């Protein structure tokens, strides 16, 4: 696996600007998906795993500098939370107090953690080091299985949503792996990392 070209690495200010724009867009798009998509697809719109994809993407684009991709991922998800609540206030008539409610701060806290983890995972996915590339890609697949298991255990979502999340988890390494070896090794790590994610979910609940 070859390292990314230096010319492909965006400047820090560009990375942060894209993370900001992405966060402000993700929240409203998430809300729109929840109110317009049919079951079980509406559940996916409100999936933390789908939000993790956004942090992963900005980390993969940022490529270098774990601090800056961590900040970019966290910034994106924190702004997405506030963008979500802002959209609910404007379009659904929710109380503006949701902006600074305890629930909002809890979700922003989760956003910081997930943004750091998946921002780094995205950067590792682009790494020339095999173990980093494998873990980075497997982490993205694993978060979908972790969410599926967590929701089945808690009764939040039905089996239809869980099966879709699991299918996505298995497709992620196959679709994004850069070589056959990368795909297979990442796929082998998906379930172990998913179990780590389930433990994290259960601790957070």
TrEMBL record:
What residue ranges are annotated as transmembrane? Answer: 12-29, 49-67, 74-92, 104-124, 131-149, 155-175, 187-204
Claim: Transmembrane helix is one of the keywords in the record: yes
Classify the source by domain of life.
Bacteria
Q: Do the record's keywords include Cytoplasm?
A: no
Xref: Pfam families: DUF6518
Keyword annotations from UniProtKB, A to Z: Membrane, Transmembrane, Transmembrane helix
Q: Protein name, please?
A: Uncharacterized protein
User: Which species?
Assistant: Spongiactinospora rosea
